[in-house]
């Protein structure tokens, strides 16, 4: 077993005129990232995912170095084994639910950590498999998006405000599934949230960007 913290991050993020340093270490598995609008939450997720390059510093998660400016480590995004769930699900409209879940799932090795039938059961989406995307509720679409992310066999899950576009009823419906995800999928997760209440329910620790 490695003694490395689950999250070890110290980066300078630069996006146009925006510049900030984010530094934290944590041994908690599920982190809520909170802070005012424009504080840099999405920018940090993008840096972890390899979609933007920090101007300085390092990102190591689960003892795995994803980026280190001093040693010129910069794992390409597609090698980082990260599942990314967006606010608006971003499912493929030309595929049905099954097609979306199958998209990008490595085939045929037989030793995958996340298996199709288990993920479908975990997220309660078995009845949706042949449905078109445009007929799904916001909460159903998010569950499918999470399933698609897990079936890409990630080692880390990033969720950018998965509840924020839902009305209160749909949100109440989705929350227990997200709690189940947190409890039954033993992956590190970073959860961007605006809501103190969601944060308290879903995260082991809160990281605030001022
Ligand atoms: N591609 C870009 N070019 C220039 N500036 C950018 C770019 N992307 C983000 N920014 C700026 O970087 C800052 C941080 O944005 P970011 O989206 O990371 O914040 P956030 O905390 O996620 O905000 P929100 O809660 O509103 O989503 C903002 O001032 C934003 O305008």
Automatic annotation (TrEMBL):
Alphabetized Pfam families for the sequence: ABC_tran (PF00005)
UniProt domain ABC transporter: residue ranges: 1-210
Signal peptide start-end: none
Keywords: ATP-binding, Nucleotide-binding
Entry keyword annotation includes ATP-binding: yes
Domain of life: Bacteria
GO MF entry, a single one: ATP binding
Membrane-spanning segments: none
PANTHER family on file: ABC TRANSPORTER I FAMILY MEMBER 10
Protein name from the UniProt record: Molybdenum transport ATP-binding protein ModC
């Amino acid at each position: 077993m490695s003694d490395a913290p689950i999250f070890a991050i110290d980066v300078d993020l630069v996006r146009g005129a925006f510049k900030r340093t984010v530094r934290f270490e944590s041994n908690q598995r599920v982190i809520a990232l909170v802070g005012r609008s424009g504080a840099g939450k999405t920018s940090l997720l993008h840096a972890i995912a390899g979609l933007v390059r920090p101007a300085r510093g390092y990102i190591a998660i689960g003892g795995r170095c994803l980026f280190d400016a001093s040693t010129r480590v910069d794992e390409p995004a597609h090698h980082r084994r990260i599942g990314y769930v967006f606010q608006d699900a971003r499912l493929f409209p030309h595929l049905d639910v099954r097609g979306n879940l199958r998209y990008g799932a490595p085939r045929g090795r037989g030793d995958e950590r996340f298996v199709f039938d288990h993920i479908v059961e975990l997220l309660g989406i078995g009845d949706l498999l042949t449905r078109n995307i445009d007929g799904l509720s916001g909460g159903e679409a998010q569950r499918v998006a999470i399933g698609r992310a897990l079936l890409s066999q990630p080692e880390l899950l990033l969720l950018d405000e998965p509840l924020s576009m839902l009305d209160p009823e749909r949100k109440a419906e989705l929350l227990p599934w997200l709690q189940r995800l947190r409890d039954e999928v033993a992956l590190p997760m970073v959860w961007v949230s605006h809501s103190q209440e969601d944060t308290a329910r879903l995260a082991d620790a809160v990281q605030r960007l001022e």
